[in-house]
């Protein structure tokens, strides 16, 4: 007995839907993220209704409502109370009337949830809620190591598999810490660790203060500032187009790049 991972993209939902449907019939744990197309969301909600465990993050609210992790369910159903009252209260404070604000509110809760929940009693649906939040913490952290630990964690919690993490854990049954990356930040390839992405700047002011020391000629020659909006996942994955674009703007056009990365659903917040 072991772990089998089947990976599909949104394109497969259009071109290989029958294959996806057959795979879902034999699936024990369903995981998806960033599905906003209405037809795809509706199809997935129906196709996964019999999958025992469903992790759905940063997607259409109708699809996220079918999240089910043990006794915890986002929508609630017969035999399930849905999100505990304390969680529903936090979600209502974080979400608003705009669709994009509601999705961003869920993201805020998911980010802060693990720190808040450790102070709540481990009864009822809370252990399963912690599993939901821990899984998202790995996914949100991004990068190969976080995703690998997420798959191992899911295998242990829902597949009863005996897994071994690379990190030494303080106690049996624990899990390695998430490698943290901010939800919103700034970066520059000249300020990067030898292994892995980062460190990052928290604010444009911090970035500009650093850049004044890094390239003083940009201020002496009054280079125009060019803001770049990047996906956080691309930054964590260290996609090569990012340093190439930044260097191209600097060397070929004497533009001062201001590279800001975002989670994806919070783009409107960065623009504001």
Features:
272 residues, mainly alpha, three-stranded mixed sheet, 13 helices, elongated
Helix/strand order, N-terminal first = HHEHEHEEHHHHEHHEHHEH
- SS content category: mainly alpha
Radius of gyration: 21 Å
Write down the overall mean pLDDT. Answer: 81
The amount of helix comes to 40-55%
The outline comes out as: elongated
N-to-C span: 50 Å
Account of the 3D structure:
This protein is mostly helical and 272 residues long. The chain has helices spanning 10-15, 17-25, 38-47, 61-64, 85-94, 99-117, 126-141, 144-159, 204-214, 216-220, 232-236, 241-253, 267-271; strands at residues 29-33, 53-57, 68-69, 72-73, 185-186, 225-231, 256-262. Helix 5 (85-94) crosses helix 6. The longest helix is centred in the middle third of the chain and has 19 residues, at 99-117. The relative contact order is 0.09.
Blueprint of the fold:
Elements: H1 10-15, H2 17-25, E1 29-33, H3 38-47, E2 53-57, H4 61-64, E3 68-69, E4 72-73, H5 85-94, H6 99-117, H7 126-141, H8 144-159, E5 185-186, H9 204-214, H10 216-220, E6 225-231, H11 232-236, H12 241-253, E7 256-262, H13 267-271
Parallel strand pairs: 1-2, 6-7
Antiparallel strand pairs: 3-4, 5-7
Helix pairs in contact: 5-6, 6-7, 7-8
